[in-house]
Task: structure prediction
Amino acid sequence: MVKHTATSVVTIDRFIIEEERNHPEATGELSGVLYDLALAAKMIANKVRSAGLADILGATENENVQGEVQQKLDIMANEIIVKAMDHGGRLCAMASEEEPGIIQIPEAFKCGKYCLLFDPLDGSSNIDVNVPVGTIFSVVRKITRGRHGELEDMLQPGRRQVAAGYVIYGSSTMMVYTTGQGAHGFTLDPSIGEFLLSHPNIRIPENGRYLSVNDSYEQLWDDKVRSVMRRYKGLEGDRSPLSRRYVGSLVADFHRNLLGGGIFAYPANRKTPKGKLRLLYEANPLAFIVEQAGGMACDGAQRVLDVQPTELHQRTPLYIGSKTDVELAQRVLSGQPELVVA
Ligand code: AHG
Ligand code: MN
Ligand code: MN
Result:
């Protein structure tokens, strides 16, 4: 791996090529997927930045498969990604939070050996109030025979991902991704339209600073979840309290904790007994990133990346971030005895 100094100007394209060189067997197809995703991210960033000026704020009349009202930008971001990715010849199918079934590659285009799963716009309820939103993506290798991707290709446990990442459309636009060789962050320089390496080899602090959880569901949590939250707040056990930060966009809450240290929790509750967040294109990609940065992600019972999916849009409880904080949740929620600190 080439050692970059603070002054070197490293575009995401150059970084992808250098990473590819570490895999002599690489064909360049995965690199192509990442290039195309970076292009789609720039196009979505452009739309998000000007949403308040063009008539693309607000909601449509339709609901997605999740039963959620689709924001205009949800649909626009979805179309941008599908159109940017469907003709490159590297994918055999896609799956999106905004579409009920698998998105097949049109007959006119070549099929490749990868599947892309994505949340085109995360945190979309925040668009109209100018709070950061994001895009989340996951790439797995096709495991079925034949030309086109199938549901079985999509329903692989997260540990089988070959790449994952997110884009955060915040005070600056950043793309963070991993191919299993560390997690790396790139900041978009709008003056030249390039993502430049700004956060090589991100490492999440071992001990968290922030707790990100929506407390308004407290009455709906079970006693174990309540106990975990009380420990994070220093109301129970011997931990010092974490600072509370909750934006309501998973990508924004996750990114702050990835850089500053902390835990994001979206527990199961009586209203959403399986959790709210989607396993395949929200929890899995962020779990791959956080593990590559030295953190952890569990669903309360097991490591997120080991969950065997059974449905495309299945939901999961999520506890993700700094190791010590996630371990605490895992211990309490699985009923393990307290660790006695010597
Ligand atoms: P999406 O906009 O893709 O549907 O995701 C919204 C998710 C996630 O971004 C965020 O963490 C969570 O919804 C917030 O849920 P609550 O409003 O229930 O806290
Ligand atoms: Mn989302
Ligand atoms: Mn979404």
User: Anything to note?
Assistant: The chain has two domains: 12-199, 210-334. The CA atoms of residues 249 and 317 lie 16 Å apart. The helical segments are 12-20, 29-49, 72-85, 151-154, 223-232, 250-260, 279-292, 323-333. Residues 12-199 form a domain with the Fructose-1,6-Bisphosphatase; Chain A, domain 1 fold (CATH 3.30.540.10).
